[in-house]
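pasting for ref
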Amino acid sequence: MAAGRGARRPRGAASVWLCCLLLLLLLLGRPAAAGGGPAPQSPGAGVRTFTPFHFLVEPVDTLSVRGSSVILNCSAYSEPLPKIEWKKDGTFLNLVSDDRRQLLPDGSLFISNVVHSKHNKPDEGYYQCVATVESLGTIVSRTAKLTVAGLPRFISQPEPSSAYAGNSAVLNCEVNADLAPFVRWEQDRQPLLLDDRVAKLPSGALVISNVTEADGGLYRCVVDGGGGPPKFSDEAELKVLADPEVPSDLVFLKQPPSLVRAVGQSVVLPCVASGLPAPTIRWLKNEEALDTDSSERLVLLAGGSLEISEVTQDDAGTYSCVAGSGNETIEAQAELTVQAPPEFLKRPASLYAHESMDIVFECEVTGKPAPTVKWVKNGDVVIPSDYFKIVKEHNLQVLGLVKSDEGFYQCIAENDVGNAQAGAQLVILEHAPATTGPLPSAPRDVVASLVSTRFIKLTWRTPASDPQGDSLTYSVFYTKEGTARERVENTSRPGEMQVTIQNLMPATVYIFRVTAQNRHGSGESSAPLRVETQPEVQLPGPAPNIRAYATSPTSITVTWETPLSGNGEIQNYKLYYLEKGTDKEQDIDVSSHSYTLNGLKKHTEYTFRVVAYNKHGPGVSTQDVTVRTLSDVPSAAPQNLSLEVRNSKSIVVHWQPPPPATQNGLISGYKIRYRKASRKSDVTETLVVGTQLSQLIEGLDRGTEYNFRVAALTINGTGPATDWLSAETFESDLDETRVPEVPSSLHVRPLVTSIVVSWTPPENQNIVVRGYAIGYGIGSPHAQTIKVDYKQRYYTIENLDPSSHYVITLKAFNHVGEGIPLYESAVTRPHTDTSEVDLFVVNAPYTPVPDPTPMMPPVGVQASILSHDTVRVTWADNSLPKHQKITDSRYYTVRWKTNIPANTKYKNANATTLSYLVTGLKPNTLYEFSVMVTKGRRSSTWSMTAHGTTFELVPTSPPKDVTVVSKEGKPRTIIVNWQPPSEANGKITGYIIYYSTDVNAEIHDWVIEPVVGNRLTHQIQELTLDTPYYFKIQARNSKGMGPMSEAVQFRTPKADSSDKMPNDQASGSAGKGSRLPDLGSDYKPPVSGSNSPHGSPTSPLDSSVLLVLIVSVGVVTIVAVVVVAVFCTRRTTSHQKKKRAACKSVNGSHKYKGNAKDVKPPDLWIHHERLELKPIAKSPDPNPIMTDTPIPRHSQDTTPAGTSSDGSTHQRRNSYRGHESEDSMSTLAGRRSMRPKMMMPFDSQPPQQSVRNTPSTDTMPASSSQTCCADHQDPEGATSSSYLASSQEEDSGQGLPTAHVRPSHPLKSFAVPAVPPPGPPTYDPALPSTPLLSQQALNHHLHAVKTASIGTLGRSRPPMPVVVPSAPEVQETTRMLEDSESSYEPDELTKEMAHLEGLMKDLNAITTA
């Protein structure tokens, strides 16, 4: 039996597997979901799958020479094998009859004996490999460029040159770029070996560094390429000179040009300099030093050239070659641009689809420059149409598939660096035959229930074969009348019998039909329904072929054509134009198809667009077109021309470009004209090419004055020149290898507000002196520094303080530096000094006598803010003619500074015009500017200052010192603190806090918390416990957002019993120390019980005892209040009634009811004038008479009152509700040195007895008076001290006096008069004062009250500073207390007693319960 059972099991398992297989085939044989929607990703059973068809090898760009052979590789994979063909420049090659081109077996193209001449270049061009499989389709490879090097041509040849030993030499040999790699060098007709000292640049030039005698000889370059014999250049001799031991000028032999390279290529930035001593070369990238020693990709070649191998996008930037020799440095810059070929971020995916469906091939590419994308189907370019559309930039959408759409689709991306392709296959599936079973009949009553201009809503009824139709789905097929492509739209859920077809064209006829599907397949189609969409009020479309071109430096012509779409005749056009960089768009009405705008700015970019109008209104705007007006000659001269005399035969000319708005094009160079001052007709011209802003003029005569002027050039010509500026060469070539010696003499002559300084030059006249630096200041000569010309021998220091001791220093300087200073001191004369004022002092026979008439300072100084770092300073010179034309050699000195920080020094610059452009300023900073004029040996004083604040700029540094801490008691809440950015560049208007649990997440995935204003802390709630968070902060000002701070990590604490929130505590029902799980922040525990901190419930017995104690204390307190009230009432006198009436008339009619116990005198009172608590003079006894008050030491000692009746009681009892903020309380520390003032509530003089010597004070009631109409101040001898009123009884003399009052209750006022010192008291007139009770109490009326009971202070409050004045004599204290005690009427006591009886009943009820 066991054997039989074992034999039957395999047969049973086989039957089960057979059933599963049949069921699977049945399911796979069903049609795909309703024939529409997204394309299915896998075929059904029996349907062909995707066929592998792709390129294994694609051709690459190739460089060849004439007469050589070339192979362009190509290989494709497919089954069956594909047919390979080649295209050249888009045309198929006929390789059958071509003798030189052959197709190799693997599909590669072989070209033998490459042909290339000046007029015949049949082999050069773009090649593309095409692979075809008859039953599948066609794919194309990337295009490859074949470049054939031309015949060797020398653009420049080596020239004879010389170099000092140890210096560098450069021999140029420039050939056509294709042959540069084939250049080699020979020395004395022998091949030259290259090493670390001898290098060949990519251009073909030869660089020899650290030249030795062996490097001398004849050099020539040889070109081996070109398909012919080698071609030799001319020979040039290199002479090696001995070291002259005399410094020579530092010059560049080779400067780096701006280059463009592709990712992965190598680049060489040439830089060679010459000079003595031999220069050193260092490189900077974006103003940061490059470390070539620690980088494997950065190599310094011979002479200092920089080679970067395998460049990346990060290598792009500005490179600076800095050559240094001695104290001289020169710099050359070059821009390296790194491009990247196209690269696919997302390749198209092969798709299955049914006819009538819509599909999308996705293609995402990147590259630099941004690639252009085109689509190819089976080797033919896809032309966009109504059914083939480019969507989402590069994706291809095919609408309403038909069988002929099947094939291979390729996305081809191309930019300046290269091209790439990626393909995918589209397979059109046949609908599977229906399974056995009834199919639904055609849906009934198909109607268009809603017809609009661009959509139609169709409705229908269920088929007659299935009246219920709950499980049926429907497909709506529609096509535009006259086209073969049919599209489909499916219902969204079974049983739905309506569909809205979107994205239709207005006034167009569409044909609709509907089919129903059940589980067996698709049923009959309904009869075609012909529907025409509504025509819409069509506005004109965009005008096609809009073009704009510049016709002159101030005019642009714009043309366009009539819009293709539009319902109605075009009435007119509106041309909009906008100057680039501005936001004000202007428009012009135009009736034709072109318009010329005149009066535009020269060499300025403008954008244009056109909008057509018809009877319905404006149509669709065209895309913006941008065009720049033509350039023109500059309309202004260069700025800030200055001259620097180098030696007896050369002068350096410095200048700055014309203002940007007046350049009218790209400045291509500058023209320098100079002449001798004595021969003005003999003018010499020098041309400076490029953007160089200085030029050394050599070969001048010794001791001769020359005039110079500079003009800017554009491609259009020369602009206006500057005014002539003069400088005189030295008489002889002096030594400038060291600083000047000390001046031979220094003399000072102090005046009232100025000091005249005169001097004589250094005794050694063989050292160059370029000027003198005068430093001066009160006590130190470093406060101010003024530099004057080397010819000047005196200077008047102006704007000094009278009667002040100034220290003055004088130093001669040249290009090497400043020499040894000479010191002198002088004291300016006082204002009262009327002695004769000397203008100068002659202390040496050769000191020149200055002109006694000083120059007038410039006037009308204005500072015009141009940007965040640029200010234009303009002024007028009243000593010039009315037309303000400068015809002499005067120059102006502009100085500027900012007061932040306070010790900032002035910066100076010279100008020869009436304006100067100050650059390099800090954003959002206030600067002050002043100007002085100098002519020959005369200078003016500084002008009046002008001020200007530079514009704001976005913050350039992130917020700093970012810290994150957890909020105490709230583990889900954190507090973020930070400091403002160091470089805010404006007023910070807010911050943005980013936080995330993933530090590597994209920034748009981080959570954002905005912070408005300049707050430096923010609280974030509802975080997850025990989770690491990362925080970044970004500052914002009016100009935008600054950089983000570095991410700061913080892990929220774990949940434990000490951190749980009140809502998380377990209720008493948990019992026996158990704790309920965290029920969330919304859970509220039941009121029926509560757990102790340790989890055990409080016993009912303990609660009853506590309740009895509370009630007992309350009863005793109330009884004491009643007794005191009765006692006070009986002592009322008529005099006190008058007093109370007077107070009521001033402060209101409210009557205060006290409830104090019979305790010792209160220890605090509130001064009405200063609204502060002041201490009574402390008794010197070890145990003062002041006793404990009922004020609890801690807020936990009291039971808060929560009933409404309690609230009303407080309203009646409280005399004053003080401000809740502790900030409103004055501190004791600031007032310890002040004598407290006190208002005396009586007219008689106090006795001489101290209150502490009066035993009767121990029985005084707690209520003490405070009059509202005080007439006197403290006696002069009153003293004060402080003590803690409520909790520091045993050490009452230490610390600040404080009173604990719960914040939810109003501040109680309490008072005790001060005790005057022994002796006859004297009184000052009373000062005007504001009564304490005139302050507005929260939610209460103003109350006029004379006293406040200490007994009402049973509720604690955060500590507040208290200042207590000294107490008055006992008799006056007694009188004040009598006033306080008698402030109640009998009827008032009756009402109060009734209220107290009600409270007693409530307490008895609570006790009984």
